[in-house]
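I need you to check the entry underneath: sequence plus fold tokens. Let me know what the token row says about the fold.

>
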Amino acid sequence: MNGFDGMKIENLFDLSQTIAAAIFEGAVYPWEVLPKISEFIVKLGETLPEEEYERKDGNIWIAKSATVFPSAFLNGPVIIGKEAEVRHCAFIRGNAIVGEGAVVGNSTELKNVILFNKVQVPHYNYVGDSILGFKAHMGAGSITSNVKSDKTKVTVSCGGERMETGLKKFGAMLGDRVEVGCNSVLNPGTVIGRDSNIYPLSMVRGMVPENHIYKGRDNVVSKK
């Protein structure tokens, strides 16, 4: 799969693995839904069954089967899915959907994100204005950088071409089963295709195709 096709929603995510599937309707690229997350959570939360979810003040819905440590901070609107785990001192700033069985680790910060089911951001991660697909995993200390240093709007690059997003805040789109190595930085507008791996200590920008290994900017290899 070449070019910008690899960035399309249908080629990054299994929408059966998120409670937020409806937000993607009518969109082509996943970053198009980032401005809609807050409103979507409130509308979706109102439909969640009371026997499965507990509603708290501030538009916060927590599945009764989820585990949220007392030291975690949740600012709505937020949905915490079934069997999810939000660990010690996690900081959820708002506009966050945490999927079923997902792990939000100690001192991890989330802001304006969708985490599909089984996502793991387990140790000292910052994830902002981003979408992480089914079973995506960010190693300890890896982060999404969601604002350019010059504060201009984010573009997505692929093969020497650029696509305008119209967004000033846009972190990363991680396809299903992506593995990000420890202490890596995903620069604004990063898109990583399904089943790809990012080496530890990487600084990533633009598109990494599916089923590839990112060893460095000029060393991205297909999986054997």
User: Anything to note?
Assistant: The domain at 3-222 is CATH 2.160.10.10 (UDP N-Acetylglucosamine Acyltransferase; domain 1). Residues 69 and 87 are 5 Å apart (CA to CA).
